[in-house]
Design a protein that fits this description.
The complex is a heterodimer of chains A (about 475) and B (about 250). Chain A is an alpha+beta fold. Chain A has 14 helices and eleven strands. In chain B, the strands form two sheets. Chain B has a six-stranded mixed sheet, sandwiched between helices. A four-stranded antiparallel sheet of chain B has the order 2-1-4-5, covered by helices on one side. The chains are: A alpha+beta (about 475), B alpha/beta (about 250). The interface of A and B includes residues 372, 375 and 379 of A.
Chain lengths: ~475, ~250
């Protein structure tokens, strides 16, 4: 029999015992719904984590350093294992541009960070300062920020981390009370002026200064190629934002509390610790960086980009390896959720077997008639398979809908709870298209497997006996 | 009534040839010999009645000829096919292409309309839908049921149901029409109507007809030849003088 004919006959037969077949199909739906609900929770949670992590910039960022920086101090003077030129390069502006031109790289920006003195209302503070590229605006560390992000990449503006803001206002949070409201900090600080006192690096020929560092011998004993002077300068900065979270959680104790726009920071030519070490290698007046952050298009390409940068002779670091463990955790979670979800479907499949075996008993005579007028065993078998399959597809489709609805309800309920607890709403539930297809396909497959025994039994019926049956 | 004479092949060839045909089965510890060494030959185009009392084995013989059952021993050859040697699949094809069957209880499928019942064999034969519908309409037209093609069997009288069953039996243009007590559930007037139709198909289409009945009068009126069975054995095979033994 042809497939359209089979489907038509199967549908007709299913309609004949509508109640029983509907109940069986609902059984399948419940099974599929539980599977979909379980898996979509798992997927939703993983997507939530991935989104968070991607936004945090941890997973798509590669930190590039000149290889020397990664060496231990003790080995730096070891000439026998001295770096060959291919292995070690200066991380300067041309290198940064070269990295930026690599495929899959969104941007490569120098990490400018230095410790310097800040003055606010005539009181001095010592703090680590870091520069942020304009792309950092989408970093979710700034989600809870009061005020605004830098108006431009060169604006004389500053964003403060909450703990530093507390320090400026002389507020020390009491032990046990872990949250100070950012809004309370922002009110007196936004728009205020902060003065940064820093050391500027100036090529020595241009302006001789008392701090001239002429002929500083390099670590490798190279001939000194350039010299510079250090001049003390001041820069007034307007406080535009107070950040709730810590955009640099990845850096641990070295994280900065004060942030400047990147281009502004570059233009200041602040003396950085790396300058002391790299002074001999700076062949031109191109800036040299201690490290460069590279943003990759998506986390999947991090490894490729890392390899390419390593080939260029730089050291790299990314948090990708840590994420592999997390992926394993999610795989195990999927497996568990999937197994629990499938259990209901297995129970439902027993319902299919039961329904079809009942149908064979009821339709014994009909099977006999069909065989008498020329139906082959295969025709009868296919017909029962088709009935099982139709129930499976219907059950699958309805089940996906129910599963989706359950997800929506739980999502809604959870978000009401989150809102009451003062958290932003989240999306825990994801039913991607592949899951829909997988669930319907799996339901169809399970139904066909359930139909194996009844269909075989129907096909083997002896027509003479079947016709005798009243 | 005389014993069967050697069949003459002068006019037509053998459509059915059974040789020492046996169908035994066990019911508990007892062996039932439903068909016990039947040999017969039916020529193409013949109208034969299988007569006997209940349990004589006539329906069993018909089922063996129909390919619904397999002989325990012996052979039944229908148009050069040894049915005992066909696979289940081949037997189904044989039932589909060669045989048309009508039953005492009509055996229409209750959930289908007449048209759907009639075209069901064509579905198994994988005939296209449009062609199928035309053929079903034609077949129902032939038995005078064109107007009722969209009715379900339960909405029809017994005679109408049996006519629909006839239309279904004929839709694949079989060479062999097998009828198992076709008038058993009908009043005599309707029974006559059905039998007239069967005779018409036998005459007009040259179809070989084998009819099982326990009504001798019916057999005498329509069959050219009457084969009597008792206890699974052939006890008499005679030409029907009224019909002149001619198709």
């Amino acid at each position: 029999m042809k497939i359209p004919d089979l489907a038509e006959l199967a549908l007709r037969n299913l309609r004949e015992s509508l109640l029983r077949n509907s109940l069986t199909t609902i059984g399948i739906s419940v099974g599929v719904a539980s599977l979909v609900a379980m898996l979509s929770l798992g997927i939703g949670l993983q997507q939530l984590f991935s989104r968070r992590l991607a936004k945090s910039g941890l997973f798509d960022t590669v930190l590039v350093t000149s290889r020397r920086d990664l060496r231990g101090m003790g080995r730096e003077r070891d000439d026998s294992t001295g770096p060959t030129p291919a292995e070690s390069r200066v991380l300067d502006e041309p290198a940064r541009q070269e990295i930026e031109r690599l495929p899959n790289v969104l941007e490569a920006y120098p990490d400018i960070r230095f410790q310097t003195k800040l003055r606010f209302e005539d009181k001095p503070y010592l703090e680590i300062i870091s520069a942020l590229p304009s792309s950092a605006k989408s970093n979710d560390a700034f989600d809870g920020m009061k005020g605004s992000f830098f108006s431009s990449d060169t604006a004389a503006e500053v964003i403060l981390q909450k703990t530093f803001a507390e320090k400026l206002l002389g507020k020390i949070p009491a032990r046990g009370v872990d949250e100070t409201n950012v809004a309370d900090l922002a009110k007196p600080l936004l728009g205020q002026e902060l003065t940064m006192i820093y050391s500027q690096r100036v090529p020595s020929s241009a302006s001789p200064s008392p701090l001239a560092a002429d002929a500083v011998p390099s670590a490798d004993g190279d001939i000194v190629g350039a010299s510079y002077s250090v001049v003390s300068r001041e820069q007034k900065l307007k406080i535009v934002g107070i950040s709730d979270q810590d955009p640099e959680s990845m850096r641990g104790p070295a994280r900065a509390k004060v942030f400047l726009p990147l281009k502004l920071a570059e233009s200041l030519h602040v003396m950085q610790p790396a300058d002391l070490r790299e002074v001999s290698r700076a062949a031109s007046d191109q800036p040299v960086y201690s490290s460069v952050s590279v943003r990759v298009k998506n986390p999947a390409q991090v490894q490729l980009v890392e390899d390419a940068i390593k080939k260029m002779g730089f050291g790299t670091f990314s948090i990708l390896d840590a994420s592999r463990g997390l992926q394993l955790v999610f795989r195990v979670l999927y497996a568990f959720l999937g197994i629990f979800g499938s259990l209901a479907l297995v129970v439902a499949s027993i319902g299919i077997v039961n329904t079809l075996v009942m149908a064979i008993l009821e339709r014994r005579r009909e099977i006999g008639i069909m065989k008498a007028i020329g139906a082959s065993d295969a025709d009868v078998k296919k017909l029962f398979f088709a009935e099982a399959g139709v129930m499976g597809i219907f059950g699958g489709v309805v089940g996906v809908a129910i599963g989706w609805a359950i997800g929506q309800v739980i999502n809604f309920g959870t978000n009401i709870y989150l809102k009451n607890q003062g958290f932003p709403p989240e999306h825990f539930w994801a039913v991607p298209w592949w899951l829909v297809a997988l669930a319907v396909g799996f339901s169809f497959f399970v139904s066909l497997v359930s139909g194996l025994y009844p269909a075989g039994r129907a096909a083997r019926l002896d027509p003479v006996e079947a016709l005798r049956y009243e | 009534m005389t014993t069967a004479p050697p069949v003459s092949f002068a006019r037509s060839t053998a459509a059915i040839h059974a040789e020492n045909l046996c169908r035994h089965y066990h019911m508990g510890d007892t062996l039932i010999r439903a068909v016990d060494g039947v040999s017969l030959e039916i020529r193409a185009g013949e109208f034969v009645a299988l007569l006997g009392s209940s349990g004589s084995g006539k329906s069993s013989v018909l089922n063996l000829i129909a390919g619904l059952d397999r002989p325990t021993s012996g052979s039944v050859i229908v148009q050069d096919r040894d049915l005992a040697k066909l696979s289940r699949e081949e037997l189904a094809k044989y039932r589909l292409r060669v045989v048309g069957m009508v039953f005492q209880s009509f055996n229409l499928i209750a959930s289908m309309t007449l048209a759907e019942n009639v075209e069901l064999p064509l579905r198994f034969a994988e005939v296209d839908r449009s062609q199928r519908q035309n053929m079903a309409r034609e077949a129902l037209e032939r038995v005078g049921l064109r107007a009722r093609m969209n009715h379900r069997p339960s909405e029809l009288s017994g005679g109408e149901q049996q006519r629909a069953a006839l239309a279904r039996a004929l839709i694949n243009r079989p060479q062999l029409l097998l009828a198992d007590e076709p008038t058993g559930n009908l009043d005599s007037h309707t029974g006559t109507e059905i039998m007239d139709m069967v005779r018409q198909f036998n005459r007009d289409l040259g179809m070989t007809v084998v009819m099982v009945t326990h009504e001798r009068a019916l057999a005498e009126r329509y069959a050219q030849r009457m084969i009597f069975l008792a206890d699974g054995k052939l006890i008499d095979d005679s030409k029907n003088e009224q019909q002149g033994g001619r198709p």
